Amino acid sequence: MPEAPAFERDTRNWLERAVIGLNLCPFARSVQVRGQVHYAVSAATDESALLDRLAVELKELAALPSDVRETTLLIAPHCLNDFLAFNDFLARADDVLVELGLEGEIQIASFHPRYQFAGTAADDISNYTNRSPYPTLHLLREASIDRAVQAFPEAEDIFGRNIETMQALGLAGWAALNVGPSAEPDGDGADCGKLKT
Known about the structure:
By secondary structure, this protein is of the alpha+beta class.
């Protein structure tokens, strides 16, 4: 099994070259520079184990002050490699948030190597705004989002600008960023599409 540092390194590389480098998220640079992004690599190969790890990461983020840990990227390289299974999983991830009493305090955003917006073709460049090297859950503090929106009053325009950025970049430009996976996880994550009982 590839070492966790390889998965973290690839995710850092993607964050720095794509998310920050292309300014897809204008809020990301400051927290990365201040070292407030926590990278957590899950060894889970089934959905139940990933939900357990998600609960741990949510509780840790809620317990720490934001100047220590502003946000968490939970990377799941061995699980949910099928995008539809990943998309279905997000509802169960939100259920964990509710069960922990963290709804309204933390929200979960999602990134995936095969991310596909509804109504788009698989190779549509717009999908790449949410494509990460491995399936990833981004745990965000609601208070941080509120502060960011105040600092960037036109935050609702970010998505449209990102699509324009990706269209100008094109598939060849994205490939040139070299932000894909360098390590192949063991297995294909096919058993992670449903809860084990």
